[in-house]
Amino acid sequence: MGLLDSILAAVSGGSSEGSGAGQGHPLQAALGGLLQQGGGLQGLVDQFSRNGLGDVVSSWIGMGENKAISPEQIQKALGSEQISGLASSLGVDAQQASALLSQFLPKIVDKLTPSGQVDASADAQQGLAALLPSLLQGGVGGLLGGKSEQA
């Protein structure tokens, strides 16, 4: 978890200087951009499915245990262009961005789909904004804790 802690520390520190541009926190803006680029949460699910990772992303949505995903699988699913864009917006390299996504994306998708299915009418951006404070406040705590967390 050292890599994630250092990435979050860098991202958190990066936002303190010029606070409040655009979507607020750089991590929220980067992940929100990833969702928008892919056509929302359903688009992201479709993209993972097209790239042979449908069973993995389905586990994040479903009510069971989330399957792990490697940084390499993240690269395969999203492509180098999306990873590079995310990395650039966070001020990290592509390998670090893939590692970050491999840890956070399963938890984020899981939390954005509490009923076990993608709700097309739900605002993923708003859900992401609600999740981000718990992600950052606990030094990764809120989303990297276990599934046995309060709903």
Q: List the domain count as a whole number.
A: 1
Instruction: Please count the helical segments.
Output: 8
Mean model confidence by pLDDT: 74
Q: What portion of residues belong to β-strands?
A: under 5%
- Compute the gyration radius: what is it? 14 Å
- Number of distinct beta strands: 0
| Structural classification | mainly alpha
At the fourth level of CATH, the homologous superfamily is YidB-like
- Choose one word for the global shape: globular
- Note the main sheet: none
Please name the CATH architecture.
Orthogonal Bundle
Tell me the helix content. Answer: 55-70%
Distance between the termini: 24 Å
SSE succession: HHHHHHHH
CATH class: Mainly Alpha
Output the CATH topology: Arc Repressor Mutant, subunit A
Low-confidence stretches: 1-23, 138-151
Structural commentary:
- This protein is an all-alpha fold and 151 residues long.
- The protein has a single domain (26-140), classed as Orthogonal Bundle (Arc Repressor Mutant, subunit A).
- The chain is 68% helix and 0% strand.
- Residues 1-23 and 138-151 have low confidence and may be disordered.
